[in-house]
Amino acid sequence: MKRQAVILAAGEGTRMKSSLPKVLHRVTGIPMINHVTNHATQVGIQDLFVIVGHGAEAVSAALPENAKTVLQAEQKGTGHAVMCAMDQLDPEGLVLVLSGDAPLISAETLEKLIHTHEEGAYAATVLSAQVENPTGYGRVLRNEETCDLLGIIEEKDATPWQKSIKEINSGTYCFRGKDLLKILPKLSQDNAQQEYYLTDTLALLKNEDQPVGICCIENPEEIMAVNTRVQLAEVEAVFRKRINHRHMVNGVTMVHPESTYIDHDVTIGKDTVIEAGAVIECGTVIGEGCHIGQNSRISDSFIESHVNILHSTIISSRVGEKTSIGPYAYLRPGACVGKRVRIGNYVEIKNATIGDDSRAAHLAYIGDAKVGKDVNIGCGVVFVNYDGKEKYQTLVGNHAFLGSNANLIAPVTIGDHAFVAAGSTITEDVPGEALAIARSRQTNKEEWNRKSRD
Length: 454
Description:
The chain is α/β, with parallel strands linked by helices. It is elongated, with a radius of gyration of 31 Å. The protein has three domains: 3-223, Spore Coat Polysaccharide Biosynthesis Protein SpsA, Chain A; 250-346, Hexapeptide repeat proteins (UDP N-Acetylglucosamine Acyltransferase, domain 1), CATH 2.160.10; 368-454, UDP N-Acetylglucosamine Acyltransferase, domain 1, CATH 2.160.10.10. Strands 13, 14, 16, 17, 19, 20, 22, 23, 25, 26, 28, 30, 33 and 36 form a 14-stranded parallel sheet that branches. It has an eleven-stranded parallel sheet with strand order 12-15-18-21-24-27-29-31-34-37-39, with helices on one face. It is built from nine helices and 39 strands. The active site is at 362 (proton acceptor). Its main location: cytoplasm. Mg(2+) binds at residues 101, 227. Homotrimer.
C-alpha cells in the first residue's frame, strides 16, 4: 500500500519567544523538522506533505527536495491542517500524520505504528505512551473493561478525573486514506478552543463502527514535543545521549559524554578518544585512533586517522594522518594539512596547504599559501597576504626553512631548500638553496644610554 505522510508545521510557536519559526530551531545541528522528514523517508514514505503557515517561506526553504508544501493560511487546529492537504492525498494509500515539533520519534517506532495499523486492519491508529507528568497532552480514553479506545480528550476540555490519566496522545497517527478523507469534513469546532481537532476523527470513526487501534510505545522520550526553549534543551539532551551512545557502542571513548556535543551526521572511527567539552559538527569525519582534546571544536572537516588535536578549532578543513594540532591552533576554512605535520600553539591557517612532515610550532599566521614538504615555519612567521584591497598567494618549496619573525609579503615564492633568516621581511622571490637576509645591519651606539641621562 502506498505510504503518505502529512507533517504539521504551520504553528507560530509563541512560547518559544522567537522570530524564527518553531520547527526551524536546531536540534543536533539541523532544524528539528528535518529530523521528522528524515525519519519519515526512512520508512518508505512516497508522498511527503508539510503543512506550512507561520514563516512558510523559511520553512519551505529548509525542507528536503522530496517534500511538498501545503499552505494553511489560517491556523484553525490540527484537523484543519490536515484538511488543507485533502485534495492531494491518495485515498487508496495509508496516511501518517506527524508533528514537526516532535523530532525524537524514530523510524523504528513509525514502522511499528504502521505494522500495528495494518495488522489490525484499523481505519485509524494512534501512537500513545504512559508518562509520569501528562500536563499539556491530550489524554487517551479507554473502555475500562475491554481497554479499547473510546477517544482522546484535549487537556483544556478534560475533567479533573480525565486529567489524572497518564496515557497521552503523541500527536502521531496512521489512517487508511479513504477513511480519513471521509471523516475529516465531519469535524466540528465545538470545543474550548473553537478549533478542528484531528483527535475527534477517532471518536467519529468509532461512531461509524470503524475499528480504531492504539500503539502504545515503551519509551515516552520519543514523543517529546518542543513548545519552549526549556523543552528544546531537553530534546537536544536526549538526542545527544543517543548519538554519544551510538558512537561509544561502535568503539569511541568519551571521557565525559555529558559534556561532549556531536551532531547527528558525524562519523568517528574506533579507538578515537574524545575528552570533555569537545564539539564536533556539520558532517565531520574523524578516522581511527585519534585524540580530540578538551574544548576542541571541529566543524565540517575531514580528520584522518591517528591525529592528535588539543584545545583547537578546525572549520571546513582537512588534516592528514599522524598530524598534531594545537594547543590553541585555529584552522580556518580551506586549510589542508598533510601527514605527520606539527601545527603548534596559536598557529592560524586559512586557505592554505601544508605539505607532509612540515612544522609550524607556534605563533604563526599562514594564509593563502602553498607550503611544501618538510618545511620549518619559525615562531612569529607571518604570511602577509592582504594589501588592503586584494589577497595574494605565497608559495614555499620543499625543505625550506623560514626563520622566526619573518614576514613573507605576497605574492612571493620561496624555492626548495631555501633559507630565510630570522627577522627578515621578504618582498622578492628567493631561489632554491639560497639564503635570504632582509633586515638592517645592527648598529651599537657606545655609551648612548649613559650620555642620555646626563
